[in-house]
Structures are given as structure tokens and as C-alpha cells.
């Protein structure tokens, strides 16, 4: 992974390889692509295995991960996180790995449960696809890979901003031709 | 910046701690403040002008007066002794506007407050607000002995840890049982603050949930000379005065707010230095110490120190 460019706006989340941190318990959340990152973390810090609890949003569970609770899809993540955080105490560390959409949603749910941002680490795995919110009609587009993209809710062409909402777990898409109606640049692939 | 307030009450709360109440001389309402705020109290102690910071302990919504609690430090520089011995009801004192460097983080679900001794004072103002609100809170106060404990009307559910009764605070235990979303606030001696914060970090509390306040009294040290480049003056700093106080004595413009090495307001650029700056503040990052100094608490040993003042 390359470090985030220094000129990124402050709301842009920092994704970096997961590092073991002190804490009495660990909650790990990953999709199929992120499971490798969790396995690497656990290999690096085997002590984490004893207290780790893993929510895995994937069809298949890799055999080398301990204490896995399978989660059928991101729509089931909220209930799974609420269950995992029952009685949780300060010192709990969260380790998130997977697509930007998954880790963005998981972070939003953890923050809503009261976790501090500093106790949540995130490692993006897989492609550069972004979870986007249309700021006009509020429709979420889960896996946007081109910029601009067409909002599946209102049909506007939206510019993919770097501005990120931690509450929504999504980047913001803003109408790209508001001042020049119809003048939409050719979409290009989003850089990682 | 300073306003004249009338001292209307001086009430001992314990052998060493005294409560003072200050009101507007004409009874006008004072500005509201927020829990954790402090004021600077100016004292003319013979030829020496002292300015000490004291946390406000009264209800932040009560505009009829400000209250502080002062612990007498017999080995201190003299400010608390002056308050205990010289300050009398009816006197007019110059008092700064409230400044808050120790507010509660309102995004927290629970506020865990840990106080050592007179470090309880900012929490007394917080408690006025917390008992009215619906945020969860806990308060742990450690004091040397019950006989020395000031009469502060603490809520019954505050946890008291008294050295002479063997109910010492088990910091790891207190920190281990806190629900998600708790913020920690510590006020007390430097040693106590460091011990509590180290324990919290070791237990995995993230930095943004940790808050501490310690007012440093500028400790004395060997006298030294500074050169103020902007005003083209050489200033002698005596053993018992701070660099900031020496600049003020000479009429050199120097901003300040907390006078305790915490807020950053008096940060001054060092233009030349042949010697060692004795950094005693909590504010400057290690890399900033190369060319900056906090004159409120820090000192100098060497042959030449030139400041941008």
C-alpha cells in the first residue's frame, strides 16, 4: 500500500495496513478480499487470536481465521455489530479490512455505537471502487469505479469528490454539469 | 482583559483550602462560562505583580459571581499565600475573563473524571452541569486524608479514595470497566496525570478520548539574560521570576493566557541561542522546541538567548 498523498482533504479516511494495538479485545470485520489482511495481522500478532472476534461478510470462511461469525451481507452488518458490541468496554480495538464500501459502512456503524475513531483501523483491499452518496437525492451507489458517474436515483452526472462522511460511510457525489447543463466530461476510471 | 471584581467571601474549606467568591462591584451579571474554565487572578504582592490561574468551581450558569478554591502552598512562589493571608472580603481584585482549556467533549457517552487532591477544582464546575444533563459520568477523587478533605458538597455517588483510610484508587481497575464512548479527564499532579494517562494508553484508550490539565507554577531557577530583538532590549530574569514576568516588568509586549505552559498563547520565536533552553511546558512538540520557547514557564542556561520580542 502507498501512503495517502499529503494534499488529501482532511475528511478523506486514512487507510493503512493493520497494526496490532494494545487492548483487552479485538473486533475484526472483513469481506472476502480483506480476510487476507486479517490473517496477516493475526500471523504478525498471534496474541490477538485469543480475544479476536471476526465478522466476515463473505460466502466462504477461510480455515485459518479464529472465532468467525459469518455475516450474509452488508445489510446484516448493523445487527451483527450491535451484537458483537454488547457490553463492550473502552480498550476494544476494531480492525477493518476490505472494500472501501465495507470498511466505510462498518466504521459508520461502530462510530454510531460510540467507538472513538482512534480505536478503529482500516485497510482497503481490492479495487478503488467507492461507496458514493448523491448529495442531491441522497441515493447511495455502492461500487462506483468511474468519475463522473450517473446517479442511480436521480440520473444526474456526479463528480466523485474526495470529501467523505464518516456518519454515512460514503464519499460525496456532486452534480458536475450544474452550471453547464449537458456538458459532462468523459468518465474515467477512479484512481486508487 | 482584566476586570475589577469584588471579593465578597473568604471561607475555609479545610486547613489548607479556602473558597473565594468574586462579584461585580455594582452587582452586574458576569459572563457565563463553561465547566473546566479558569480565571487569572492578579495580585499586587509588595513590589511583585503576581498572576495565578484558578479553575472556577461555581455553577457556570450562575452569573451572580465566580468562585475559586485555593490551596495554600507554603513552599510555592507566594500567590496562594497572598490569597490566604492578604486577600480580604471587600477588596477589589483584577480578574481575567474565563478561559477554558479543559472542557468536556460533548460527543462522549460517558465522562470519567479522575482528580488528585486540589485537581478536583475544574470538576466541581463540570458537576454543576453534569447533574443537570443526561450524560453518564463518574468521579474519582484521591486525597491524602479525610481530615484534609475540603468541604465541597460532592455528589454522594462520587468515589472518594483516602490515603489514610487505605481506599487508594486502583487506576487499572477503574479504567478497565468503562463502557464504549467514555472520555477520560485527569487533573492533579504531573506524576499522577502521567501515571493515569500511561495506564489508559496501555489499555488501548485512543488519544482523542484522553484529556488532562495541569497548571504549572513557573519553577524558579538560575538567573539569566535575554536579548529582545524587536524591542532592542536586554532583560535580566531573576531566580524567582519567570521569563514572561521579566518581560512584563520591562514593559515588553508579550501575549499570555494560561501562564502555565499549557495553552500556547505566549509562544515566542528564538532567533539565536548559545546555550540550552530549559523547556518546561506541555505545549511545544519536540521538533518545535528547536526554535521556540514558552516564556511563562521555560528558562535558559547559557551565554546568549535572542527572542523575537
TrEMBL record, chain A:
This protein's UniProt keywords: 2Fe-2S, Flavoprotein, Iron, Iron-sulfur, Metal-binding, Oxidoreductase
Residue stretches making up the Dimethylamine monooxygenase subunit DmmA-like N-terminal domain: 8-116
Transmembrane regions listed in the UniProt entry: none
GO molecular function: 2 iron, 2 sulfur cluster binding; metal ion binding; oxidoreductase activity
Alphabetized InterPro entries for the sequence: DmmA-like_C, DmmA-like_N
Pfam families per record: DmmA-like_C (PF22289), DmmA-like_N (PF22290)
Domain of life: Bacteria
Signal peptide: none
Dimethylamine monooxygenase subunit DmmA-like C-terminal domain: residues covered: 131-174
Protein's recorded name: Uncharacterized protein
Biological source species: Paracoccus gahaiensis
Lineage: Bacteria, Pseudomonadati, Pseudomonadota, Alphaproteobacteria, Rhodobacterales
